[in-house]
Structures are given as structure tokens and as C-alpha cells.
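Hello, quick one for you while I still have it in my head. A protein chain has come my way and I'm curious about its shape. Can you walk me through what the C-alpha cells say about the fold? No rush at all, and the record is pasted right below.
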Amino acid sequence: MKIGIGLPIREAHIDGEFITEWARRAEAAGFSSLAVTDRVVLNAKEPLIALAVAAAVTQRIRLMTTAVVVPTRETTLLARQCASIDALSGGRFSLGIGVAVREEDYIATGYDYHKRGKRLDEQLPILKRIWAGEAADPEKKIGPIGPIPVRPGGPEVLIGGYLASAVIRRTVAWGDGFLAPDGMAPDQVAGLIGQVNEAWTAAGRAGTPRNVHGGYFALGPNAEAQADEYTEVNYGFKPELAARMRKGIVTSPEAIREMLKRREDAGVDEYVFRPCTEQLDSVSQLADVVAGR
């Protein structure tokens, strides 16, 4: 199982020097991917721009979103941005997709929160057409839009979400893999992966989908306090969700190794650790732990 690491971009003081240093350290430490999350109503750096900065100072590590809230974005602009990162990084970009649970992000961008699933279903084929160099609208035949990605058919697309039926349908129709939501127990992850794999085969798609999962970590003497603070700041708006997320944060080397074993047994191909703090030492701390698992 591959192991990736998150890039913290949610703090207001994060700058370009921090992003490039974190990216360099993550690549040097051998992590498979560098991942960013997405929010609209938050004093945070824009995730795709942050990945573009990281792409400029790395050569091997994949650049991944876990996940972009696609229905809050204009589709053709998103297609151009993703294709550009893919082209500029030599085909290292993976687009993790989600619809998210915060209505305020939709209010801020002018899209209907209650129709976010329907909007995503409309966006996915448009993204694929644009990446193939076709017209975004077949009737109007306007194109091409943006660069052709390095990877044939466009960047890798990982479909995430909690509604199993919709996620499975989208993954089989438009995805390259499945992005298991945070806070899921290993048996839940294994169950969803099994359903995705079964539907993939039944649809006649070649090979198997790539199954990615992730969660938060904190290490060091203040790990528990850091985990508590991060949970409250980012998930305190919904106590039930906050409790589930806090339970899943690993705060010791032993917990990290046990969690990795259980995810690997569940069929996860890559696990992404997202830090609860923006301390640069977190990269080497995690690398030391996973190297000895």
C-alpha cells in the first residue's frame, strides 16, 4: 500500500515558501502523493494553486485533491486548471472529487446545495470531453478548451462521497478509482471497496479501480491537544461529524501502524495522512513512523 501526506493550506499564514519546503520534504521522504483539501468559506489557500506551486519544486510525487468540491466550481475553468496542472507536472495530477456537506460553500458560490449531486453528474462528462480535446457542448461545438493533459483521457479521477449508490455509479461511469470518505471504519471502507470493485467488473471495465483513503494524524507531546483543536475548528459545526472525525485521528506511532494494517487489509491501495498542524517537522515524524511499520 502506498502512503501519501497532506499539504496543510488552511492556515492564513501559510505562504509560498512554506508550501515549497513542505513539498520538497514530502518528496524526499518518499511519500507517494501530496494531497490538499478544499473549502470555499474559509481563510485558506486555493488548493489547485497550492498544488501548482508544489509541482514547480517536485519531480516524482503525485499531486492530489482529496477532494475538490466540484459542484461549487465553474466546469470549463476547472477543466482548464486540472489539465494545466497535469501538463505542467508531467502527468502527476489526481483529481479527487466530492460534493461536501457544508451548505455555506454553495451559498457563497451561487450554486444550489440541494442539487449538488445532479450538478456533479452534469459536470463529469463535460470535464472528460474537454480533456479529450472535444467541445464542452457538442451542439455548440466550441473548443478546444485548455491544454491536452499528459495522461490520455485526462487526469486520474477519484470519486468520493458517503452515498454509496451515487459514488459507485459515478466511479464506474467516469472515475479511475474510489476515494473513501474520512471517518469511516475499516469494515465500512472494505464494504464500499468491495461494492465498487464488483460494479466495476460487472460494467465490463478493464482492470480494477484504484482505491484511496485518508485521515488525520498528529504526533509529538501535544498530539492529543492538536487533534482536539483541529477537530473543533474544522468540524465543530456538526457535533456528530466532529465526534466521528476525532475518533479517527491517530496520535501515536502504534496507532498509525495499526491503522495502516487495517486499511491495507480492507483493500486500500493508497492511504493519505493529513496533518492536524502545519509544523514542518510533521513530515519527518510521519516518515520515520511509516518507514518502520
The chain has eleven helices and eight strands. The mean pLDDT is 94. The beta strands are 2-6, 33-36, 62-69, 93-98, 156-160, 177-179, 210-217, 270-275.
